[in-house]
Amino acid sequence: MDRERRKGLITLVLAGIVIGILSSSTGLGGGFLVVPLLLFLGREAKMAVGTSFVFILAAAISAVLMHSRLGNIDIKTGLLLAVGGVVGAQIGPHLLQHISDQNFKRLFSVLLVITAVWLFANSFSSPKG
Question: pTM here?
Answer without folding.
Answer: 0.75
